[in-house]
């Protein structure tokens, strides 16, 4: 998540206003801007645009306009109903989900409970290869949909009650199930998305049909743009602008030049090389807000060069996080020495212990004793503004460990993820996480569980898996947090990744728009933004 939410850009934490507004009697959508106005927002090329297959921030940003979630989150990170009328359970195991009446897909189909059941079953069916498959694992019957030859195509835990009601029975109690339902994997898909039961049309991803405040305008123009327009039949709060162009950039520097020249309306992430001048360049169009990002350096733990926890700890101790945060990020990020974001209950400082402390002398001794590789490669996506901090990191590793160290850029984040998924040798690699939903479990389960959806490094520890599972099944939040903290302590011992930085939204916009807000998930609030005149 993300994390939705693997983050392509240098994540720069918690917008006061979150996501899509709750359903209500919103205005007619025209206030503050002309119906002919087009707001342009920079994104990277998404990897996917199918809800159950989208786990990075750019794809999530687009889907946040096309779909409406069952729940969103208030300023205290508590879920509130959006497309759902109610989500209830007496035992945290059997959940009853009632939908609000009046939602329709962009092709006119009425949204029903079956649209959720069909979409979730599609995402959970292993042969479909959906990146968010993992998020359905707590639903009863999920195991029967796994493997090359699954026993079933539908989860036994999903049952239709009526057109607007269905139940989700879990394999065991899960205290945060309602909270997870704000994630895009749990969006519905219409009958029109499928060519046959459980078979998604090849064309659907190029022009997804959702039930949110915007609908596709044409098809996805790869490496160029994605156009959407206001869906006037949306029953919730109406967007203030009619058209949004998600403009795809290969380089943040080019996007920054465009926002300065008023040729781009919203740049969600200021490039690192412009952080020192952006406040004066943009004036009151330079903005910051809290966000949930976590930047880290990951290791292919299946590679003998990085299979030793001591090698990974030594590399961590050889990196001066505070210096890089100051010199490269101009204080716009904070050093991370824990595996869970400080925006969440249960966060503790410095859970990495000594491995998170800068100590070049001890780092070199430990590295040599553990037989670390003579050359360290750090792979990163070239479309994400990472070069400066990667260069600074490899220079520190050269100086502090006495090894050769280089950065290696892949053209796009999707390219890097594809190589990592195929276990193509890339050395160590940068990763970013923006939470899928506000729980500690979201920073642990997807990233480090043996079968975690975003465990790209092959990490596996049965005791860790057990503790995360016990935390999920806890009866109270306090009990859950205690288990999650124990699981985090295991990460500190094994160090499958190196925590580097926690970020915040550092963004800019043109003079043509106003009311630009970004949320915890590094997304622009598409309902509130409007034309300046």
Automatic annotation (TrEMBL):
Q: Name one Pfam family in it.
A: SBP_bac_5
Q: Which Gene3D superfamilies match?
A: Dipeptide-binding Protein, Domain 1 (3.90.76.10), Dipeptide-binding Protein, Domain 3 (3.10.105.10), Periplasmic binding protein-like II (3.40.190.10)
- Which residue spans adopt a coiled-coil conformation according to this UniProt entry? none
* Keyword tRNA processing included in the entry's annotation: no
Residue ranges annotated for the Solute-binding protein family domain, each copy included: 82-454
Q: Out of the domains of life, which is the source?
A: Bacteria
What InterPro entries does the record point to?
Peptide/Ni-bd, SBP_5, SBP_5_dom
The record's keywords, sorted A to Z, are: Signal
Annotated signal peptide: 1-21
Which PANTHER family does the entry mention? Answer: ABC TRANSPORTER SUBSTRATE-BINDING PROTEIN, PERIPLASMIC BINDING COMPONENT OF ABC TRANSPORTER
Name of the protein in its database record: Periplasmic dipeptide transport protein
Native organism is Micromonospora noduli
């Amino acid at each position: 998540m993300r994390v939705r939410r693997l983050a392509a850009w240098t994540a720069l934490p918690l917008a006061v206003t979150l996501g899509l507004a709750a359903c209500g009697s919103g205005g007619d959508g025209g206030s503050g801007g002309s119906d002919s106005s087009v707001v342009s927002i920079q994104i990277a090329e998404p990897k996917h645009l199918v809800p159950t297959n989208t786990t990075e921030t750019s794809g999530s940003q687009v889907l946040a306009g096309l779909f409406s979630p069952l729940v969103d989150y208030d300023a205290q990170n508590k879920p509130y109903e959006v497309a759902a009328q109610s989500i209830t359970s007496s035992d945290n195991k059997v959940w009853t989900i009632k939908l609000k009446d009046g939602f329709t897909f962009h092709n006119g189909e009425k949204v029903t409970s079956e649209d959720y059941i069909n979409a979730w079953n599609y995402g959970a069916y292993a042969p479909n290869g959906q990146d968010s498959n993992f998020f359905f694992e707590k639903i009863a019957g999920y195991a029967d949909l796994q493997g090359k030859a699954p026993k079933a195509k539908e989860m036994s835990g999903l049952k239709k009650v009526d057109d607007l009601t269905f139940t989700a029975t879990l394999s065991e109690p899960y205290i945060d199930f309602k909270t997870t339902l704000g994630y895009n994997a749990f969006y519905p898909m219409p009958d029109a998305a499928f060519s046959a039961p459980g078979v998604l049309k090849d064309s659907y991803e190029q022009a997804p049909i959702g039930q949110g405040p915007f609908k596709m305008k044409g098809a996805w123009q790869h490496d160029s743009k994605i156009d959407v327009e206001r869906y006037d039949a949306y029953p919730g709060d109406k967007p203030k602008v009619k058209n949004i162009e998600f403009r795809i950039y290969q380089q943040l520097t080019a996007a920054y030049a465009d926002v300065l020249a008023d040729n781009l309306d919203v740049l969600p992430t200021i490039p690192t090389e412009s952080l020192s001048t952006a406040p004066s360049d943009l004036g009151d169009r330079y903005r910051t807000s809290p966000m949930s990002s976590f930047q880290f350096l990951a290791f292919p733990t299946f590679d003998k060069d990085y299979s030793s926890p001591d090698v990974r700890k030594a590399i961590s101790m050889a990196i001066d996080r505070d210096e890089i945060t100051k010199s490269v990020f101009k204080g716009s990020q904070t050093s991370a020495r824990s595996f869970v974001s400080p925006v969440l209950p249960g966060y503790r400082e410095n859970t990495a212990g000594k491995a998170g402390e800068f100590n070049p002398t001890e780092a070199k001794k430990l590295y040599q004793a553990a037989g670390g590789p003579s050359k360290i490669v750090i792979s990163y996506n070239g479309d994400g503004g990472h070069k400066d901090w990667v260069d600074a990191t490899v220079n520190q590793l050269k100086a502090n460990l006495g090894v050769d160290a280089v950065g290696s850029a892949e053209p796009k984040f999707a390219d890097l993820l594809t190589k990592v998924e195929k276990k193509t040798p890339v050395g160590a690699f940068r990763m970013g996480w923006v939470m899928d939903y506000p729980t500690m479990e979201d920073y642990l389960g997807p990233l480090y569980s043996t079968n975690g959806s975003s465990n790209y490094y092959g990490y596996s520890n049965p005791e860790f898996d057990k503790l995360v599972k016990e935390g999920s099944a806890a009866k109270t939040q306090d009990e859950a947090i205690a288990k999650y903290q124990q699981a985090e302590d295991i990460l500190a011992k094994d160090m499958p990744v190196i925590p580097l930085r926690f970020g915040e939204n550092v963004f800019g916009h043109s003079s043509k728009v106003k009311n630009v807000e970004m949320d915890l998930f590094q997304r622009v609030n598409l309902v509130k933004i409007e034309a300046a005149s």
